[in-house]
Amino acid sequence: MPQTNNPQTTFSIHPVSAALGAEIRDLDLSRPLDPATASALVEALDRHLVLVFRDQTLSDADFVRVSGHFGPLDKAPITENGRLHAPGYEEVYVISNIMENGRPIGALGAGESVWHADMTYLETPPYASSLYALEVPTEGGDTGFLSMFAAYDALPEPLKRRVEGLSIKHDSTTNSGGYLRRGFAPPVDVATSPGTVHPLVITHPTTNARALLLGRRPHAYIPGLPVAESEALLDEIWAAAVRPELAWHHRWRVGDLVMWDNRWTMHRRDPFPDDQRRLMHRTQIAVPAGRRQTVAA
Ligand code: SIN
Q1: Ligand 1 neighbour 113 (Cβ under 6 A)
Q2: pLDDT of 226-245, one tens digit each?
């Protein structure tokens, strides 16, 4: 197994699937990380796109400290239930189906969340996100991850040529759970509804590997095409690219921390029984100053 050594800590890296993901073992995140360990973890995230740390016992302060080694933290976003963050930590977003005093304590409920990357409706989408499991259901609620490099590679050659140079509009009205974001009207016409246009194919700034930047399927649009043609092409791309064999699904245990690179992956969540509790704390990491973001292919 590949090992990373430094004066204070030794951890080992164990890939969890062919496409992406690695489990980091022998690292207690509740203890301060020395700079060499922190930069080895950033490198591991670059290489494996998803990192899994099992059996952690973290306070919100620990979670914020660990996440902060990867870049500046965004504030919790405004969700369908308002801005729901952990008490005292505006950077710690709560994802949960738990109700307290008749009100949801978190976002996304118990339903499915469709394949998506976070906040790609922004000009500069977040670099990474991290989930820490506090309560998990006995069935369902797994989170799947998909490499967008593998998704691009999976396109047949004629489709690769067809998508070259195209852009895609990322819808800003609805979240991954299908809930309307506060302040938006339901989209009527995808050609005119609000969103941000990005290149459909992007390249990694150092390896030049190509990846698809799909964001999410609902209300997406390829500018310049008639809506019916855009819908048909997007359906074709999604069918070719979003394949079970390219994805890896994490089965949660309490104490798991999972971090993913939001630029080169998409994720989704299975639904779970609403009479079971699921409580996750989440941080979102902005692109650190000086780090090159994606570039158009
Ligand atoms: C998310 O889409 O960020 C939430 C994923 C999850 O709840 O597992």
Answers
A1: yes
A2: 999 999 999 999 999 999 88
Mutate to test the pocket of ligand 1, among 74, 145, 176 (most ligand atoms within 8 A of CB): 176
Distances (CA, A) of 103 to 84, 98, 146, 279: 11, 8, 33, 15
Rounded to two decimals, the pTM is 0.92
User: What's CA 43's distance to the chain center, in Å?
Assistant: 18
Largest CA distance in the chain: 59
Q: Is the CB of 269 under 6 A from ligand 1?
A: yes
DSSP classification of residue 244: G
Nearest CA to ligand 1 atom 6: 269
| Contact between residue 98 and residue 104 where contact means Cβ atoms under 8 Å apart | yes
Q: Is the dihedral of CA 82, 116, 213, 185 positive or negative?
A: negative
CA of 164 to the centre of ligand 1 (A): 30
SS3 letters across 82-99: EECEECCEEEEEEEECCE
Nearest 5°: the CA angle 72, 280, 216 is 70
Ligand 1 pocket test, candidate residues 132, 250, 267, most atoms within 8 A of CB: 267
Q: What is the pLDDT of residues 209-227, one digit of tens each?
A: 999 999 999 999 999 999 9
CA–CA distance, 285 with 297 (Å, rounded to integer):
24
